[in-house]
Specification:
The chain is mainly beta. Strands 3, 18, 19, 20, 21, 22 and 23 form a 7-stranded antiparallel beta sheet that branches. A 7-stranded antiparallel beta sheet has the order 8-7-4-5-6-10-9, with helices on both faces. It folds into 3 domains: 15-80 and 235-340, Beta Barrel (Thrombin, subunit H), CATH 2.40.10; 119-130 and 149-233 and 343-350, Thrombin, subunit H (Beta Barrel); 354-442, Pdz3 Domain. It contains 5 helices and 24 strands. The two termini are 40 Å apart.
Length: 443
């Protein structure tokens, strides 16, 4: 049977090639429905490649708003494409194919409430583990240490006050809060109200310092919440598969909820969203800790009590237990804390975040796991300068295997504009290498 031709499309994250969806926004009241079991990885897989659901899997019904990502009450469908319908611009979002212009971030403090010219260097964050050596490994001790630094977020959604709820954690002593972009996206676009609620039920008005749809992160500022203790930032790179982790947040509106599990996988390439406007690509920490609508934006912490990720998405096919959509099935994804720190630093300085681009289109549909096939190279781009051509198959980035287009996008996104990285690729069966200096875009 011949495979259908994959049309070229420059919009990254077009959900004809949808892979996952974040948890969705909605009411907190649960109602029963069924969930599904994701299939195992393909035989001979490495554990790093994306995996695909049965052909019968369908995206969410139309009446469930596509923008609804992780917050309370609804869980979006999680769909890995059986047949790709588009080719994505590697590292580019917003419909401009291969856009390679990059304007350096300005370190002058912009006229944005909560912005800080020196970024993370000028705020009081925490980096030491809150638990002593004899407390490490105790989930009760982790909960006691991190709950005061975790908040519930209530935001306007489609002109409905309080229509979206999610979670977040305190970044510093100045009142900055980290959460997911999709939790506050609607409120930010509509200049709607945003509140944060601490462990004791105290409410604080908050504003958006800046957002990154590409990384699904946002930094909020609540001036009156400057007395809340910041969560300690750890390192996801120290994690090992099987290690214990704890998720804290407000699933289904149930504030200050703690769940525990293990690290199921590391460096899992996933993408979330249902359109080019809300897609994000994550080099995720996968966990089986129970994560449900409302957990989005909350911390995933290790057993030292340090944040190792931001809970962002769950696997689901659109069935489930809450408000017509699926709840936890033991497959959740968190944005690594290293990316959170980079993005937060950029947002604090300028109100914006940058991400790397190479100026090439890559196929992102059904893959044989051998690499990412370049569909087109934009003129006068980093990809062209490095000698890459249409038809080249990228097999590794900096020595790390690349299995398909999504994996390539995620691999590039772990670097920063201006870095030079090594690509290994196949051209007519011959293995070659190229040094690519990444350009950047804002988003």
């Amino acid at each position: 049977m011949n495979e259908p031709e994959q049309p070229s499309n420059s919009v990254e994250g077009s959900q004809d090639d949808e892979l996952t969806q974040p948890l969705s926004l909605g009411p907190a009241e649960p109602s029963a429905h069924a969930s599904w079991q994701p299939p195992p990885p393909p035989p001979g897989g490495t554990g790093r490649e994306p995996w695909f659901p049965p052909p019968g899997t369908q995206p969410l019904p139309a009446e469930q708003p596509a923008r609804h990502a992780v917050t309370q009450g609804r869980v979006g469908g999680w769909v890995w494409p059986v047949v790709a319908a588009v080719a994505l611009v590697v590292g580019v979002i917003g419909g401009v194919a291969g856009s390679v212009g990059y304007e350096a971030l300005d370190n002058d403090t912009p006229d944005i409430p909560g912005a800080v010219g020196g970024g993370l260097d000028e705020v009081d964050t925490a980096s030491l583990p809150p638990l002593s050596a004899d407390q490490e490994g105790s989930i009760a001790a982790v909960a006691e240490a991190v709950l005061p630094s975790t908040v519930q977020i209530i935001a306007q959604l489609d002109e409905e006050k309080g229509g979206a709820t999610g979670s977040g954690f305190v970044l510093d002593k100045q009142g900055h809060i980290i959460t997911n972009n999709h939790v506050v996206e609607s409120a930010a676009e509509e200049d709607g109200e945003i509140e944060i609620v601490d462990q004791d039920g105290n409410r604080y008005d908050a504003t958006v310092v800046g957002r990154s749809p590409v990384y699904d992160l946002a930094v909020l500022y609540a001036e009156d919440a400057s007395g809340l203790p910041p969560a300690s930032l750890g390192r996801s790179k120290r994690l090992r598969v099987g290690e214990g982790v704890v998720a804290i947040g407000s699933p289904l509106g149930l504030s200050s909820t703690v769940t525990a599990g293990i690290v199921s996988s590391l460096n899992r390439p996933v993408t979330t969203g249902e359109s080019s406007d809300d897609s994000s690509y994550i080099n995720a920490v996968q966990t089986d800790a129970a994560i449900n609508p409302g957990n989005s934006g909350g911390p995933l912490v290790d057993l030292r009590g340090q944040v190792v990720g931001v809970n962002s998405a769950i696997a689901t096919n659109g069935g489930g237990t809450f408000s017509g959509q699926a709840g936890n099935i033991g497959v959740g994804f968190a944005i690594p804390v290293e990316q959170v720190a980079i993005t937060a630093d950029q947002i604090l300085k300028t109100g914006e975040s940058s991400y790397p681009v190479i100026g090439a289109k890559v196929q992102t549909g059904l893959s044989d796991g051998r690499g990412a096939t370049i569909d087109d190279v934009v003129g006068d781009s980093p990809a062209e300068d490095a000698g890459l051509e249409k038809g080249d198959v990228i097999t590794s980035v900096e020595g790390d295997r690349v299995t398909d287009g999504i994996a390539l996008i995620v691999a590039i996104r772990t670097h920063q504009p201006g870095e030079t990285i090594r690509f290994t690729y196949l051209r007519e069966g011959d293995e070659r290498t190229a040094e690519v200096t990444l350009d950047g875009e804002t988003g």
